[in-house]
Write a structure and sequence with these properties.
alpha/beta, flat
Length: about 550
């Protein structure tokens, strides 16, 4: 976050990595308080969790303090659940005690307008004046899965999967749904945060943090509005250059959604066509559903950059091959013919009744020969005309009486995929939850992430290819702009000597690769300014 002149910038890293937490307004009567305290305990937060209630007594089974001032020792983060009018007094007390980071769960501020909006301006002004990192108000908090810090006001279902996808949402209720879907598809998160009204800390502040966060490889956003387009563009370019894809679900295409967003957090939703064009230019991958948001982020986390649009496909199903061919065309992906040497290898692998073509259907013979799919994959990944391979497969669902053979099969497949000279994207037929046994197989064998369903999987592959192309182009531009111009030798006209007219000297310098201010003769010339002789067109 960029601080105002003379105002210290808040420490976002300290907000997300506290060593001690105070729950202010803790009470057994509040589900928010019960959940937040339970999440911190269940996820193993290592530091002290102090409970503050003006009545004192026992809360959540431990002694509560009557005020922040009564808490012994330092407090790194205050999680505030007090009534709306009590929030600013808590900030004043905390700032005086040296508490620099706050999550404000309390609602009733800018989203209701009028007096609430005025109170929010007071809170924001105080926080900025004192350099406080304040998340909210009207938000659920955050889940820093990477560090085991979970001051989050709704229950976190088990298991909390730690991974490399950072999730930032301008929604509180959707945060838990996104978390549940990520767990269902085995997508691990580094940080999930509910922004609330963004009175102080904004989405761009959190993106900026995630770009530098070593635990995060991909950033997923749910956006109602982009409050500071210039700042968003700055952090998006940082992410692109650093190789961290941003995937965004941006609402507001309809007038009704725009009005709903304004009622929700007080946000103003901008022109959707402008947003769409800006995102494309910045390499931000726009998706149309929460499912695509997480599946695309998960695929980019697992596979990273894809070197081109030429896709090889290996499946055990002719019908699935046809669906994939249609969707690949929708996404601008190419399905080239296999190279002759690849086709020859495949002819010696697949059954005689199979057709060697791309997409490749190895047929249901995989039920008899369980090595067939893997051997065909190995042949296709070696094809010189293929940039990436789609493998139609998924982890098993039900656990057999003896899981050892299944684990051995998937371990061999994982090793083959890891050794592939080209990226391999594993896609399932349909979008279903990963079963507990499937999750175990992936954990124990190293079998890669599986993009859920052909529809979402092809959308994710198309997005990954587009991001990779934009990133390569951006890196080339950055390299070109960083490299100083190299003057080249040019021939000076024979007999040239003495003083030269400015336009003539500029033309010679430009020909040699030396930057000059460009100029052109006007379309209408007068007797006073005749066109000079020669071929030069620059005029300074």
């Amino acid at each position: 976050m960029t601080a105002q002149a003379g105002v210290p910038a808040p420490d976002v890293r300290a907000l997300f990595n506290p060593r001690s937490i105070a729950l202010v307004g803790a009470t057994d009567k509040s589900g928010w308080s019960v959940s937040t305290f339970g999440n911190l305990r269940a996820q193993g937060f290592a530091g002290p969790v102090h409970l503050v209630n003006p009545r004192g007594g026992t809360v959540h089974g431990q002694d509560a303090y009557r005020s922040l001032s009564d808490v012994p020792g330092p407090v790194d983060l205050a999680y505030v659940m007090v009534p709306t009018r009590a929030v600013l007094p808590i900030l004043r007390e905390g700032a005086g005690l040296g508490v620099r980071a706050y999550v404000v769960l309390t609602a009733g501020f800018g989203e209701v307008g009028g007096e609430g909006a005025a109170l929010e301006r007071e809170v924001a002004g105080f926080a900025r004046e004192h350099g406080l990192a304040l998340l909210g108000p009207n938000g659920n908090g955050y889940i820093n899965a990477a560090a085991g810090v979970t001051p989050y006001g709704l229950p976190i279902p088990a298991p909390l999967l730690r991974g490399s996808v950072g999730v930032v949402l301008q929604s509180g209720a959707l945060a838990s749904s996104v978390l549940a879907f990520a767990q269902a598809r085995n997508v691990g998160i580094s940080l999930l945060t509910s922004m609330g009204n963004e009175a102080v800390l904004t989405v761009t502040d959190v993106i900026d943090y995630l770009v530098d966060d070593p635990a995060t490889k991909v950033i997923a956003l749910f956006l109602e509005s982009v409050r500071d387009p210039a700042e968003f563009a700055r952090v998006a370019r940082r992410a692109l250059l650093k190789g961290k894809p941003i995937v965004a679900l941006k609402i507001g295409r309809s007038s009704l959604a725009s009005r709903t967003a304004q009622a929700h957090t007080g946000a103003l939703v901008g022109d959707d066509n402008v947003v769409d064009a800006a995102f494309r230019g910045l390499g931000v991958l726009r998706v149309r559903s929460l499912e695509d948001l997480l599946i695309t982020a998960g695929l980019l986390d697992a596979v990273g950059e894809i070197p081109g649009r030429r896709l090889g496909v290996v499946t055990p199903s002719g019908g699935a091959s046809e669906i994939i061919a249609d969707r690949a065309e929708d996404e601008g992906l190419e399905l080239p013919e296999f190279a002759p040497e690849t086709a020859a290898k495949l002819a010696g692998i697949v059954p005689a009744f199979a057709t060697v073509q791309n997409p490749l259907d190895v047929t249901g013979y995989v039920l008899i020969d369980r090595t067939l799919l893997g051997r065909a994959l190995e042949a296709v990944t070696g094809d010189p005309g293929i940039d990436a391979v789609l493998l139609l497969s998924e982890p098993p669902r039900a656990e057999p009486p003896d899981p050892a053979p299944v684990l051995a099969t998937y371990r061999a497949a994982a090793e083959r995929i890891a050794a592939s000279p080209t990226p391999v994207v594993v896609v399932s037929n349909v979008l279903t939850d990963i079963s507990p046994f499937g999750r175990r197989v992936q954990a124990e064998t190293g079998y890669p992430y599986v993009a859920g369903g052909i529809e979402h999987g092809l959308s994710a592959i198309g997005a990954a290819v587009r991001w990779s192309e934009i990133r390569r182009a951006e890196l080339e531009r950055a390299a070109a702009s960083a490299e100083p111009a190299r003057p080249k030798a040019v021939a000076v006209p024979e007999g040239a000597s003495g003083l030269w007219a400015e336009h003539r000297a500029a033309a010679l310098l430009a020909e040699g690769g030396i930057p000059v201010v460009p100029s052109n003769w006007p379309a209408t010339r007068s007797r006073r300014w005749p066109r000079p002789s020669g071929s030069a067109t620059r005029w300074c």
